[in-house]
Design brief:
Blueprint lengths: L6 E7 L16 E2 L2 E2 H11 L4 E6 L3 H7 L6 E4 L6 H8 L8 E6 L7 H10 L5 E7 L8 E4 L5 E5 L6 H4 L3 E10 H9 L15 H7 L4 E4 L13 H21 L3 E2 L5 E9 L4 E2 L3 E9 L4 E2 L4 E3 L2 E2 L4 E2 L4 E3 L1 E3 L4 E2 L3 E3 L3 E3 L4 E4 L1 E4 L2 E2 L4 E4 L2 E3 L1 E3 L4 E2 L4 E3 L9 E3 L4 E2 L4 E3 L2 E3 L4 E2 L4 E2 L8 E2 L21
Parallel strand pairs: 1-4, 1-6, 4-5, 7-11, 12-14, 13-15, 14-16, 15-17, 15-18, 16-19, 17-20, 18-21, 19-22, 20-23, 21-24, 22-25, 23-26, 24-27, 25-28, 26-29, 27-30, 28-31, 30-33, 31-34, 32-35, 33-36, 34-37, 35-38, 37-39
Antiparallel strand pairs: 2-3, 6-10, 7-10, 8-9
Bound molecules: uridine-diphosphate-N-acetylglucosamine and calcium ion.
């Protein structure tokens, strides 16, 4: 059932989060690299919300700053007088004919699918509650139904009778209802209860009194309704979220050696037959082409990797574009603005920064290439480095096609090594080198016949 009313989403985010033991407001702690409250906001946007209202507490400035990329309405709750009072702060700017969907800034794993069911359950003119059955309902408000199964009221843990405490269906707090009804009921709330708070949950009793039907919807998984109050719960929901993402990727065809040792803090796009080994971290936007394999302990951040390229264990790649059939690592580091064409080989303990490496070139061992443009089929010997920085400025190194650079060479930038040049091992190249020519700067080898190794003096 589709409810054709404009949707106003209200997100409660006024919690102090004392048990997080942090100076950061609770809703700004992250799951999968994004603030808790941002997960809820992106759900609201996906649902097509006409407007989103955030009810914030004393730490509002920080939260507003962190969410400045979104178009949000901010409502301050200066005193914490209960959930009903919190919702009331957002109501003045919500039109009567909107449907209000209430969410929580510290309940990040709720899914769009569940919320669509909740919204559909209002059928436009009833009150819809998201409820769940828990083996241990302690602490939650209980859903009280009559013998016919109709919802009668919600009773809070602290106000419940022994009989009511035995009820295993709980109030998740999330609900959907027309704004005009919500406004009318919230105006009637009082705080005559165990906690002297304005309970939002009392609107259920008013709905019954007004003859408004109450429907319920349920989440697919319990983690969807779980809140974060401490670092343990934060870690538990992080794993639940990661497992959810991993399952989706496996359903899309990814071979994942261990979904429990895999984290995506961003977005991963995969081709066919991609394989990822254990302990891999994906950050930002990462694209892996067909047949790409990623070894264990690899970090990939904002990279695009072409088909059939292999990234070997313990490599860290950031802001780089990599062609097809490349071999990277183990222990390689690609820093921002590195572009590798097809069939490039980057071996162990090689660092590349802000460089373009053309097709078929190899940098196999212990090298640093910074601010470099390299041609095709170049072979860079072990231990070769570009000296791109003089302590004040950075300079370019240009290497032509089919160049062979002997091991342990220093290229003092700015410098150009022309096509087909060969550099003798151990050279320090300070001037441009001609094409198709051997260049070397090496002190002539000498052997000193008269030299004797020092012997030990007797006292020692
Ligand atoms: C509330 C529900 C309870 C439900 C539970 C689910 C009420 C009266 N009770 O319980 O039925 O089972 O949530 O977790 O609604 N908040 C504010 N301002 C306030 C009070 C709360 O913004 O003045 C926010 C909190 O930051 C939190 C949320 O509302 O995000 C729920 O508050 P909390 O105190 O955890 O709710 P409970 O009373 O435990
Ligand atoms: Ca609570």
């Amino acid at each position: 059932m589709f409810v054709n009313l404009p949707l106003s989403v209200v997100v409660l985010a006024a919690g102090q989060g004392t048990r997080m033991k942090s100076i950061l407001p609770k809703v700004l702690h992250c799951i999968a690299g994004r603030p808790l409250v941002e997960h809820v906001i992106t759900d609201a946007l996906e649902l097509g919300a006409a407007d989103i209202h955030i009810v914030f507490g004393h730490e509002g400035e920080q939260v507003q700053k962190a969410l400045s990329a979104y178009d949000l309405n901010w409502a301050e709750q200066t005193e914490r007088l209960g959930t009903g009072h919190a919702v009331e702060q957002a109501l003045p700017t919500i039109p009567d004919d909107h449907l209000v969907l209430l969410l929580y800034g510290d309940v990040p794993l709720i899914t769009v699918q569940t919320l669509q069911r909740l919204v559909a359950a209002t059928a436009g003119d009833t009150l819809a509650l998201l409820t769940a059955k828990l083996t241990d309902p302690t602490g939650y408000g209980r859903i009280v139904r009559d013998t016919a199964g109709k919802v009668q009221c919600i009773v809070e843990q602290k106000d419940a009778s022994t009989e009511q405490l035995a009820i295993d269906e709980i109030n998740t707090g999330m609900l959907a209802v027309k704004a005009d009804m919500l406004k009318k009921w919230i105006a009637r709330l009082d705080n005559n209860n165990a906690q002297k708070e304005y309970y939002l949950t009392d609107i259920v009793g008013f709905a019954v009194a007004d003859g408004v039907a109450i429907n319920t919807a349920n989440p697919d998984e319990i983690c969807e309704i779980e809140g974060v109050n401490n670092k343990r719960q934060l870690a538990e929901l992080e794993r639940a979220f990661q497992l959810r993402q991993a399952r989706q990727l496996m359903d899309d065809g990814l071979t994942l050696r261990d979904p429990a040792r895999f984290d995506v803090r961003g977005e991963l796009m995969i081709g066919r037959d991609v394989e990822i080994d254990i302990n891999v971290l994906i950050e930002g936007r990462v694209e892996l082409g067909d047949g790409v394999t990623v070894g264990s302990n690899v970090v990939l951040k904002n990279v695009s990797i072409g088909a059939n390229t292999h990234i070997h264990a313990n490599s860290v790649l950031e802001e780089s574009v990599i062609g097809t059939q490349c071999d990277i690592g183990p222990f390689a580091r690609l820093r921002p603005q590195t572009n590798l064409a097809n069939n490039v080989k980057v071996g162990n303990f090689v660092e590349i920064k802000k460089s373009d490496i053309a097709e078929g070139s190899k940098i196999n061992h212990l090298s640093y290439m910074g601010d470099t443009t390299m041609g095709t089929n170049v072979n860079v010997g072990a231990g070769t480095i570009t000296c791109n920085y003089d302590g004040a400025n950075k300079y370019q190194t240009i290497i032509g096609d089919n160049v062979f650079i002997g091991s342990d060479t220093q290229l003092i930038a700015p410098v150009v090594v022309a096509d087909g040049a060969t550099i003798g091992a151990g050279s320090t190249i300070t001037r441009d080198t001609p094409a198709e020519t051997l260049t070397l700067s090496r002190v002539k080898q000498v052997s000193v016949k008269s030299w004797k190794r020092p012997g030990k003096t007797k006292e020692n």
